[in-house]
Design brief:
- By secondary structure, the protein is of the alpha/beta class.
- The chain contains 17 helices and nine strands.
- It has helices spanning 15-28, 46-49, 67-71, 74-77, 94-106, 144-152, 166-176, 191-202, 227-232, 234-237, 244-261, 270-297, 300-309, 312-322, 324-327, 329-334, 344-358; strands at residues 5-11, 33-38, 57-61, 82-86, 91-92, 110-123, 127-131, 163-165, 204-216.
- Strands 1, 2, 3, 4, 5, 6, 7, 8 and 9 form a nine-stranded mixed sheet that branches.
- The longest helix is centred in the last third of the chain and has 28 residues, at 270-297.
- The radius of gyration is 21 Å and the shape is globular.
- The relative contact order is 0.14.
Length: 361
């Protein structure tokens, strides 16, 4: 069934990571249809493109296009039964993907299935460390409103990087693209939220224990103190009095969003749906403030400064001495095998691919 899966990677200025993905995909997912939508100014290095030796990987240079502009291209390229979105610096394991597809084949009332996720990071170009991350969850209430309500009670992604039914994602994107208005300058930052809500509404969602998502710690997240960043995040501009036009456009969109996804649905309690979404935004904003204060109390900024000035060799030595015993990725997974199902040879292959990537000349 892997031939019925299309994978979309929306990337920007990360050529080396795209090279890594191309090599990994060719070794593990040759049956899938894969589309790389690159919004960078310059096309990817020709030597990287020359690594593609099969017709299942398609590179499309979308010069200077925003994430949103590339996201709404997906329906015109999507011809398979299932679809997955991936980040350019993360790896998804074949066995977990297959188990998710098999689950959806056997359970038609589900819109999405995702496997277990862990964080990974590099240690000294010779070891990969594993870390816990948020817990993904199943959302199986028969009532679509209850499923949406449950998703809105969390502040994390859950289904967006899972295996999703293509017909549902197409419906969702058809609605999301209506936000592409001049006054609404950055609708791409609502893509994840609206996609997750749509998937929860259109069907039940499943979390299985099979390891699927290796989430990367290699690249720093966007800093929280950039004014531009604040202006395009919904937890800021929708809760601010500075952007009334944006807020009005969004409120009109969300008022009819669920009914537009399913014409048979009559939304008699739109206000509750909107209130729950805004409550979630307030919680996200509150958590960010809490995390910032925790960083101050825990001397995060001082520790970060010391990390920068301590020589790499010393940091590597300390990590090898104190981290490796519990964090080396296979040992890390072994201690969690009651909750996470994994194939040792698959994780070893993943580990070697990442190490090789950092040791290339």
């Amino acid at each position: 069934m892997l031939s019925q899966l299309s994978i979309f990677c929306l990337t920007y200025n990360r050529q080396r990571f795209i090279k890594r993905l191309i090599k990994y995909w060719q070794g593990t997912l040759r049956e899938c249809k894969i589309f790389i939508l690159d919004g960078s100014k310059n096309e990817i290095n020709k030597s990287y493109l020359n690594l593609i030796n099969s017709d299942n990987i398609n590179y499309i240079h979308c010069k200077n296009e925003t994430y949103f502009e590339r996201y709404i291209k997906i329906p015109e390229l999507l011809k398979t039964k299932y679809v997955q979105l991936v980040a350019d610096d993360e790896i998804f394991l074949r066995s977990g993907i297959k188990r998710c597809i098999n689950f959806l084949e056997e359970n038609q009332s589900f819109s999405s299935c995702t496997g277990s996720v862990i964080l990974f990071d590099l240690l000294g170009k010779r070891e990969i460390l594993g870390y816990d991350v948020y817990s993904l969850f199943s959302n199986e209430d028969m009532n679509p409103e209850k499923r949406v309500e449950k998703w809105l009670s969390f502040t994390q992604p859950n289904t967006i990087y899972g295996i999703n039914r293509s017909n549902y994602l197409k419906k969702i994107i058809d609605q999301i693209k209506t936000l592409n208005q001049k006054e609404f300058s950055a609708p791409e930052n609502l893509i994840e939220d609206m996609s997750e809500i749509g998937l929860s509404f259109l069907g039940k969602t499943k979390k299985i224990n099979d390891l699927m998502w290796m989430r990367s710690l290699e690249n720093p997240s966007m800093p929280l103190n950039q004014d531009k960043y604040r202006e395009v995040r919904p937890e800021y501009f929708l809760l601010s009095e500075k952007f009334p036009r944006k807020k009005n456009i969004f409120n009109n969109f969300i008022k009819e969003y669920l009914q537009n996804l399913d014409s048979s649905y009559i939304n008699n309690d739109y206000q509750n749906f909107k209130n729950l979404y805004y409550r979630r935004l307030k919680l996200i904003r509150k958590n960010k403030k809490k995390n910032f204060l925790k960083r101050i109390v825990n001397l995060y900024f001082l520790k970060n400064f010391l990390k920068k000035i301590i020589p790499v060799k010393i940091k590597t030595f300390l990590k090898l001495k104190f981290y490796l015993k519990d964090r080396e990725i296979l040992r890390f997974l072994e201690t969690r095998k009651k909750k996470i199902i994994f194939l040792k040879n698959e994780v070893e292959y993943f580990k070697q691919e990442i190490i090789n990537f950092y040791n290339e000349k």
